[in-house]
Amino acid sequence: RVPCLDLGRLGDSDEEDGDSYIPYSGSYLHTCRLDSFSDWRTSLQTPYAQHHQAQQRSILEHKTVPENLPSPTDRYKLKYHQYEADMKEEYKQYSQRIAEKKKDHLRCPEASIKGTQLEDGHSDDLTALDEKALLQQCYTSKPYNMQHSIRKSEAEDVAAERKKQTVAEQVMVDQLSRAVISDPEQSTHADVGKEAHGLLGFGTAPMRFRKRTLHETKIRTKSGLTENMLSNKLRFDSRIISRNGRDACRELIGFFFTCDRSLTVYEFRKFGKNRTNALPFIQKGVYQHQRGQKKGKAYDLSDFYIGANLTFRSFDHNLPESFKQNPVLTLRVISIDEAAMDFLKASSMEFKQECSKQVIDNSKIFKKIQGLCVLRETISKRGVRVITGLGKYFRHIDKNRNGFLSQADFKEALKVFHVEVPEGDFQSLWLLLDDSKSDKVDYGEFTRAVFGEMNEYRKAFVRKAYMKLDFNKTGSVPMVDIRKCYCAKKHPLVLAGKATEEEIKLSFLETLGESCSNPNEVSYSEFEDYYEGLSIGIMDDEDFINILRNPWGI
């Protein structure tokens, strides 16, 4: 029960300092009653609330400084000076710690952006676009979150292994369970002869259209595959070398069977969020090289290694129309099952003999041209402008839109971009590339032969970044989407306060748009050429990966 409140008995205590007295005649009685009521209410509150209110009251009281205050004592002055010195020292140490932290994380040399000098002391004569493109290389100095990267890569490895296991199981099902039913030789010779002479009758459907089961059909098949025979296989991942973004990003998993030296390639496709399927891309069979020094020879185990090219005739397979523009389909091996390769090497003596006879003159010629000092100096700091500019120039003069150009076209292009290649080396390179003697060479292959290309580890991240942008798998990405997805928060210049996010983003969009035939959209080949130019001069793979991880979040 709350006692009755008698405000008439309340009065000032001796402990009060008298600051609450307000010399206004009209409001004295009212103010005194309010203060007395607040004191009574305070007595009913918790100690924490009383302490909080006392702090706020002291703050309000210090806003009004009373007059005629006594001067502070020497002891108080000494304490104040010590407190002031301690605060200054703590702020100085805090500033030093922040500066050291920024220095560790923001080692982006400005000299690499402006005023870059060659080793001989001469200026690079970089254009504004070159300097803006080099801004992207500063991401190599900002270390990516390694713990996050490791967790993410482990999750991706688990998903990739499940994907490969799904495709391997589908291959075994197709080759064993359906081998007899789908064998094209299951029709008997007598039925084939009757069908050829029209003796089967009008009401009888041809054998290939009839519904048959194993126990009802007289099947004559040469297929004698068993699970034990098919288990001796080499699994490899591959990609299509194509300027079409949709085709270049297809996920292909192939298998080479040592029992009959046949191979097959499957495509892993995802429908929606949860539905996946493995579909045959190249049917199982024995295939031969279509290009190079081994042209006409069947594939064997020595032909499968990271970076190897597998060539097929496009018209021999049921492929989309985009592949029919080029008579030869080229697949690049990007990874292999090392454990299976070691097992098959140990059990195959022919592999060692084949490897000892393998000719590597082609690679020697490529390395000789790519190692020219004049060529290295030309693209040391202008890689983005040279690589993307050549690609844009080739696409402009390619009137037939088939990707092939003549020898005169390539010489003119090298002259326009001031890329000097000796005549003898150029002719040797042309003889290797023009193996069909048609005086036409694919300009993508020509660019890779002259300037080299990224390794497959780097290209995998470039494809991953592009697939994140091209989520509809249309083969081209609008520049508006790239602007939305690009994030410059982790750029060293932004963290150092020397540039804004919008400035870094605009510099990237300007250099990327300059390399595109259509400034409103970016194709896969243009996106790849841009990062191909950035990769020149970056020796460490992880430094290059940071250029993709930080702005795209992959």
Automatic annotation (TrEMBL):
PROSITE patterns: EF_HAND_1 (PS00018), EF_HAND_2 (PS50222)
Protein name: CAYP2 protein
Pfam family, one: EF-hand_7
UniProt keywords, alphabetically: Calcium, Metal-binding, Repeat
Organism whose genome encodes this protein: Ibidorhyncha struthersii
Superkingdom of the organism of origin: Eukaryota
Entry-linked CDD domains: EFh
Domain spans labelled EF-hand: 385-420
Residue runs in coiled coils: none
GO molecular function, one term: calcium ion binding
